[in-house]
Amino acid sequence: MQQDKYLKKGALTLSVSVIIGFLVDYAFNLSLSRTLTTHEYGDYKVAYAYATICGVLVLLGGDRVAPKVLARPLASKSAREVGGFVAFFSKIAFALSLAVFLFTYLSGYLHVGSWSVNDHHALLWISAAIPLIALGAILSRVLQSAKMLVHANLPWRIVLPLAKTVVILILAAVLEQVHLWHIIGAGIVILAMITSWQLKVLQNNDLLTFSYITPVSNQPQLLATSIPMMLAMLVTIAISQLDLYMLELLALEHEVGHYAGAATTAHMIPVAQVSVIALFVPLLGQALEKGEEHAEHILWQGQKIMLATVLVLSCGLFMSGSHLLQLFGEDFFSANDALHYLILGSCFWAVTAFISTWLQYTGKGKYVVIIGILTLCTDGLLNWLLIPTYGITGAAISTCVALFLASLLTWAAFLSTKKHALKSHSIRSG
User: Fold this and answer.
1) pTM of the model
2) CB 128 within 8 A of CB 140
3) In this predicted structure, what is the pLDDT of residue 346?
4) CA-to-CA dists, residue 12 to 19, 276, 352, angstroms
5) What is the torsion angle, in degrees rounded to the nearest 10, for the CA atoms of residue 137, residue 143, residue 147 and residue 149?
6) Which of 122-126, 226-230, 235-239 has the lowest mean pLDDT?
7) 282: enclosing H helix or E strand
């Protein structure tokens, strides 16, 4: 009964988060693309992708492992134990964020690659946001694990893009010219406000305290569990962002902005995918404590909702995608074919993402990492072959093929582990 009540409430939160969140995020990207030049818009998306990847890297999987590790402490409201967990990964994140910032600065100072501190300062500015992105990610995971989905999702899905949109409109009205550093600086301030609010919510609900924390026991074992989860997530993000980097390298400057418009439009499917998984992960973490057989019911329940959600959204985007693209500007219609391939690729992966999570939570994360690396290499190779000839459409085809491969391999790994588990069970029974 309690689980059904949670799922109904969570489904409502999911709907609001996905639909309204997508519309608000789309409004932000529209305001950004119309305030900046196509080239600058592309630079922002590249910088944002960089910060996203680094935000995952510096946490070493602390956010990914949180639902599994914190199921018991949150159920018993052991605020000191939760505080010890958050403090442990936060310290790691801040130390690694400093290293990333220094690396970014030195890369620009030494003119590594095609950018310098003066010419492409967006990367350097956005590096300052990485520790806040990491802290926000782990606090959101703690809130999700505590089944406080509204507090975990809506600030990032709705409040953040809405606030950034308002800031862009104000800056455009006040300033003669809006620069990237204005937008990034304002985003950092908003990140700090949301993160502080989430921290306060956890403390007010007696779910987290930093006073007399309980230190994390067996830290090497915890990192041995979290790092493979981080690597799997990192590879997944890298696959979605690799196209932007390779387009920056191999295509015309304005094509990066056009591709970013298509990727933003297709992004509604990954947002729905993440939201569905967030709805079921707290239940999965609790159920796995009773055994994999008990948890499979949660897995297949989540898969049904995921499939239905993805089919509805994909049909809607196929029908309305070209119109959404033209909101960015008439020249963005050139990304229409790329959009179709990105939607298809997102579908392939969305119906597999929960299976990937299952493999990680049941100790088979190595399969996910290997599959991710193979997929990333496939995407990179195809980008190198197709972008020079087909431009952004070639990049989208590469992603679609790579995600299809990832889907096939992930299902194969899942079925193989299930077959092995059944065989082992038969031997023990015999």
Assistant:
1) 0.74
2) no
3) 92
4) 11, 11, 23
5) -60
6) 235-239
7) helix 268-288
